[in-house]
């Protein structure tokens, strides 16, 4: 075989490889375009979270800026989508006062939520002698005199959307559920004594961002 024939054979092989690569790129582009079109038509909605209940086992302020807390909160999460499922990946729940964390993280196990489904979670939130910044001391002293404080129960984690057999990448989920929580275990307005605890029905809508 001459050198010219060998060179011609190599050129034909390169052209075939380029055609295969071009075909593969076009195929992937079409698939991606179809996914984006379906996604735009369906327009998945973010889940709805509601803080339903808070059960106080212990909630005290010792010293001007130190919290000791044991609270069980009940939160519902509803998937409002008719055609989109939601994967919740490792959600962390905790409480904050004036933006500062006052309980440890409580983990919610990963779960899949089907179309229009509702999940109910009741994690325990605990914090023992957790200090906050000293400059919040006067506010906390005033709240203590009033007998209740505003806490924000937060949920942080990641979610994935499922449309048919297509599952997206992970998106950050942030949920804020503010609530006015009485100090101690003496029932305030609307509180129900259950054993050594006080239970409050809240039904407080939460702010959700994805």
TrEMBL record:
Domain Late embryogenesis abundant protein LEA-2 subgroup: 74-177
Record keywords, A-Z: Membrane, Transmembrane, Transmembrane helix
Coiled-coil regions listed in the entry: none
Signal peptide annotation: none
The UniProt record lists the keyword Translocase: no
Pfam family, one: LEA_2
Presence of keyword Transferase: no
Cellular location(s): Membrane
GO biological process: defense response to other organism
Mode of membrane association: Single-pass membrane protein
Membrane-spanning parts: 21-42
GO cellular component, one term: plasma membrane
PANTHER family noted in UniProt: LATE EMBRYOGENESIS ABUNDANT (LEA) HYDROXYPROLINE-RICH GLYCOPROTEIN FAMILY (PTHR31415:SF51), OS05G0367900 PROTEIN (PTHR31415)
Protein name (record): Late embryogenesis abundant protein LEA-2 subgroup domain-containing protein
UniProt source species: Cuscuta campestris
Lineage: Eukaryota, Viridiplantae, Streptophyta, Embryophyta, Tracheophyta
């Amino acid at each position: 075989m001459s050198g010219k024939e060998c060179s011609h054979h190599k050129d034909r092989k390169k052209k075939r490889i380029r055609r295969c690569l071009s075909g593969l790129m076009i195929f992937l582009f079409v698939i991606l375009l179809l996914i984006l079109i379906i996604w735009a038509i369906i327009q998945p909605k973010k889940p709805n979270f509601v803080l339903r209940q808070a059960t106080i086992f212990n909630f005290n302020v010792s010293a001007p800026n130190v919290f000791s807390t044991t609270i069980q909160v009940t939160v519902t999460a509803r998937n409002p989508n008719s055609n989109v499922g939601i994967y919740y990946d490792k959600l962390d729940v905790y409480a904050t006062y004036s933006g500062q964390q006052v309980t440890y993280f409580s983990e919610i196990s990963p779960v899949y939520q089907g179309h229009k489904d509702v999940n109910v979670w009741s994690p325990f939130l605990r914090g023992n002698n957790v200090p906050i910044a000293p400059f919040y001391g006067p506010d906390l002293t005033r709240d203590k005199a009033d007998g209740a404080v505003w806490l924000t129960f937060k949920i942080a984690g990641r979610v994935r959307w499922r449309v048919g057999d297509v599952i997206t990448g992970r998106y950050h989920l942030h949920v804020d559920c503010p609530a006015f929580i009485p100090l101690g275990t003496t029932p305030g307005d609307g509180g129900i004594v259950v054993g050594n605890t006080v239970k409050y029905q809240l039904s407080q809508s939460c702010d959700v961002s994805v």
